[in-house]
Task: inverse folding
């Protein structure tokens, strides 16, 4: 689970758009681009912290969006959970990526590359996570994409 703590007054901390509204708006975006299968998985951990993942498919290619758990830091040093922030950040990011599809600069899979799911020996994970987990190999030029599927991870 990804967690973000933002200082009060930082970008998005003043949003009034409800998390559920953002989710519904985000779901409409891939549907507009030919995704027929869209699902969501919501879990709440023992501390009552929500975790949301959207999954969708475009022409047989799977994608996933993991929403960060967002907090605003208070002056007293405590954290206040505010998932409305997460909803707007992801909404605006997906919207910006899909503008590139709308203008014909990229196709859907290229634009949504950060959310692409890849099969690995450990299971299906987001491409961006696979890249992050293998950052040193990329830096040293020893990483090959075929390692994702042939047991090299």
Result:
């Amino acid at each position: 689970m990804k967690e973000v703590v933002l200082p009060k007054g930082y970008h998005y901390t003043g949003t009034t758009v409800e998390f559920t509204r953002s989710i519904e708006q985000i779901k409409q975006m891939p549907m507009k681009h030919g995704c027929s299968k869209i699902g969501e998985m919501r879990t709440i951990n023992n501390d009552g912290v929500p975790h949301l993942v959207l999954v969708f498919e475009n022409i047989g290619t799977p994608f996933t969006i993991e929403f960060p758990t967002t907090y605003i830091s208070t002056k007293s040093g405590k954290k206040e959970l505010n998932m409305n922030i997460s909803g707007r950040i992801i909404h605006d990011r997906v919207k910006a990526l899909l503008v590139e599809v709308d203008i014909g600069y990229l196709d859907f899979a290229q634009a949504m590359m950060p959310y692409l799911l890849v099969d690995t020996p450990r299971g299906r994970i987001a491409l961006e996570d696979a890249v992050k987990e293998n950052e040193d190999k990329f830096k040293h030029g020893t990483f090959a994409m075929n390692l994702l599927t042939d047991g090299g991870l």
User: Anything to note?
Assistant: The longest strand covers residues 50-58.
